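QUALITY CONTROL LOG
STEP: pairwise intake check
CHECKER ROLE: data steward
CRITERIA: each record must contain a sequence immediately followed by its structure tokens, with no blank fields

ENTRY 1 OF 2
RESULT FIELD BELOW
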Amino acid sequence: MAVNSDKPQLWKKDIAASVDLYNAWFLDFAPTTYRETRRETVELVERALSLTKDNASIDPAMLRAHPGVLPTLRMSCCPPIARDRLSGLSYVGKPLIGTMEDGKLPPRMASSELEENLKRIADVFSRLLDRDIFPWLQESRAATSEERYRASTIVADRLCGAMSDPIIRNAQEKRQLAIIRRYLEEHGYRHKQHPPSSPVSTMEPGTFSFRTNVEVGDALKVNIPIDVAIQPRTLSNSKVPILIEAKSAGDFTNVNKRRKEEAAKIHQLRQRYGGDTRFILFLCGYFDGGYLGYEATEGIDWIWEHRIADFAQLGL
């Protein structure tokens, strides 16, 4: 029996309640989360300034030693540039840019080729640095502590602006998983992280696991990441746990972008483990009737965060 997907008469009221819950959380907690991230980012930018001698020494040697400064340098340009733009301007491949932004260098690239690429990147930054933010560069002098701090806050704001959606999304996801954990523990379930090498059907009854990979496919096997896997005390015939995906959205515009991915997931799961596999969305925020109707048609059910007690209908 479905929990919510077969009750379209309730959708309109639930959508309004879900939007209200998300908005209340955003107004209360998102600014705090953003401020904390901004403080940490200011410290990150200050460290980058120290490594680059206040942006006066951007050269291949520095980039080789500290590849992780790339995001800060991109936001130090006028105008700030995205990864793809840096790749195009420097004629350097996107994989190298991505690897450096992860704080690493490509292990298989020849040293001479890497040196040439780093020189091109350094040349772009040297030409595009925002000298209104870093006035000491134009005046060929040392930066004062006040100027350095002011520049750090400006670049940090740019970084946080580019990262604001992921910042909010990550905070919301952590909150949703904490709510699910609290509900399960209050109902006698125990957290036990499932070993990635073991089939999910071997999960111990009465336990739950976060960030669990579930293998699908026959000839070509792939892992599907699942936010929460819950093994009820009474096992299903397939012994596959209930699989939960936590989802939140701050507007109606973007919720439909990933619905085809969710449909593909449930098809792969049921092809591998049978038609009774339960793949449930845990929703908070802006999910409209079009989104819900699509998911229901694909056989995907959901539980609203504002009515978490519906978990009981899953036999937990």
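ENTRY 2 OF 2
RESULT FIELD BELOW
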Amino acid sequence: MAALAIAGIAVPAASASAATTTARPAPASAAHRTGPAVGPAVFVMTDNTAGNAVVAYRRAPSGTLALAGTYSTGGLGGVLSGSVVDHTASEGALAYDREHGLLFAVNPGSDTVSVFRVLGDRLELSQVVWSGGVFPVSVAVHGNTAYVLNALGGGTLSGYRISGFGSVSPIPGSSRRLGLGTTAATAFTGTPGQVTFSPDGRSVLVTTKAATNAVDVFGVNWDGTLSAAPTVNTLAGDVPFAVAYDRNGDVVLAEAGPNAVATFTLGSSGVLTQLAVADTGQMATCWIAGDGRYFYASNAGSGSESGYSVDGAGGLTARGTAATDPGTVDATAAGHGRFLYVQTGKSGIVDEFAVGADGALTPIGSVTVAGSAGGEGIAAG
């Protein structure tokens, strides 16, 4: 998290409007579009408090991005008190559901989640639904089930069923309270960072950052609800922030406390057992992205990406560090791992990289996302 390593002026939190009903607006057209082509895309969320939006970029064969359109979410962005370049202090604010062709975007300032249909590099707004809590920051999808992580009010999880028609509805009895005890003074560091399904869909993992320095693991029941209580994996002082998975299904964790990347096995009972750890040597290591082969940790305080490969036993091998624009936050891999796109929160720039055969990153360009300074949420279609 940037606040752990960057000194800056805190941005006051946006006020959240109470949204307690499910809305189904008419499909939204792009605020502006360029070019008739439809192709592979990268989507970026602005988290703008005056009106949240998802900006779509067409990805060229070379990996460079071209603006395809800007789409209102029908909700508001939000800012956690104490944040500087990462206003939601989370990973997974934008989630692509490839199976159903849907894109989920959180609206922290409205306590809602927007659901878009994905048509290549075009989007069509399908639904805006209540997030089930206060200040949603992360979404996870597996099969026909989605879970939304709400950061404030102690942290909550809310489940949704995805229909074959691309619409979502709340799962009765799915809400779970995390009970993190977050206060106004700890809204930035003491809120949860990410919700994610295990690769087999049998578990839901939540990182609690500095609130309890834990990864909470819930079991997933047959009806999509979660176990009544999680298995709590306490990682004292590690500030677990974001999760990815290697090809064996092992957990790859970004730890903001020691500025490190660590690997773990995930047992059937929800217990994490550490395999390896590697210090990045950078500042504010919070986000982790990859394609199962190479993984890249975003270092907000250093303006850099640290690359790693993971072997069959969970061992970590450094693959170099690449400079980014200031305020490195979330990232996504695309093109079967040939490209990496990195959000940088200070000026709202997305840096484009080609991934070499050895995992090294080569810069190939960048785009400035209008109105997205401090925003988080990026996904590849």
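INTAKE CHECK: passed for both entries
DESCRIPTIVE NOTE, ENTRY 2: The CA atoms of residues 9 and 321 lie 28 Å apart.
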